[in-house]
Amino acid sequence: ISLGFNPIWYGVLYTVTCQIAYMTPPFGYNLFLMRAMAPKEITLIDIYRSIIPFVLIMTLGLALIMIYPQIALWLPNLIYGK
């Protein structure tokens, strides 16, 4: 396929971006799921505050994968021998 980029790399970017979207407002489906499973004394604000480190790490990882596609492609290249 001649797209100008590797489809596996694009799939990894898409997956990480979707996961960040599931953890952040305005939708944050995973946040509401965590709120439903948490004890009553845990508020939604507590959950929002607790995801900040995870979102920052995932955003940093996403930026690194965008800058260095080899990070996402080393394992498929190792397995399939490209």
Topology:
Layout: H1 7-23, H2 29-37, H3 44-50, H4 52-67, H5 70-80
Helix pairs in contact: 1-4
Walk me through this protein's architecture.
The mean pLDDT is 91. It is built from 5 helices and no strands. It is mainly α and 82 residues long. The chain has one domain. The chain is 73% helix and 0% strand. The longest helix has 17 residues, at 7-23. The two termini are 15 Å apart.
Relevant terms:
5 helices, mainly alpha, 82 residues, 73% helix
Q: Taking all residues together, what is the mean pLDDT?
A: 91
The general outline is: elongated
- Give Rg in angstroms: 17 Å
Helices, by number, come to 5
List the uncertain runs: none
The first-to-last residue Cα distance is: 15 Å
SSE sequence, one letter per element: HHHHH
What structural class results from the helix and strand content? Answer: mainly alpha
Q: Could you tell me the number of beta strands?
A: 0
The structural domain count equals 1
Helical content class = over 70%
Short characterization:
The protein is mostly helical and 82 residues long. The protein is 73% helix and 0% strand.
